[in-house]
Amino acid sequence: MKKVVTKKVTIDDLAGMVAHGFESVHNEIGEVKEKLGDVEKRLGKVEDRLEKVEDRLEKVEDNLNTTRMDVLGIGDKFVSKHDFNQHLIRFELLEQKVKAK
Fold it and tell me: What is the DSSP letter of 78?
């Protein structure tokens, strides 16, 4: 059997272990803060890009609304094909009546 060697831990030893533990935690927190800083920078860039996309989408919507209004306005300026054909038929009937007289 092996003999178990017991070492007495002094207050100074315990204080050193606690200090070492706090130092490790402090270093890890520093690394996490650095990573968070990088993430915040990247999110800022993403936010800027999203704002640009939103601006471009607003312009597209404005152009689409303008185009829609232009298309709807065409009906006010031109006669529909159905109306045109109906007028042609009536005109031909009138021509036939005039020729018959």
Answer: S
Angle at 67 between CA 61 and CA 69, to 5 degrees: 105
Return the structure tokens found at 13.
């030893």
Token pair for residue 99?
Answer: 């020729």
**Residue given tokens 């007495």 in the structure block:** 8
| Ordered per-residue pLDDT tens for the chain, 101 residues | 677 767 787 898 888 888 898 899 998 998 999 999 999 999 999 999 999 999 999 999 999 999 999 888 887 778 888 989 999 999 999 999 888 87
> In this structure, what token pair is assigned to residue 55?
């601006």
Give the whole-angstrom CA distance, residue 90 versus residue 101.
17
Count how many residues are written for the chain. Answer: 101
Q: How far apart are CA 27 and CA 75, in angstroms?
A: 73
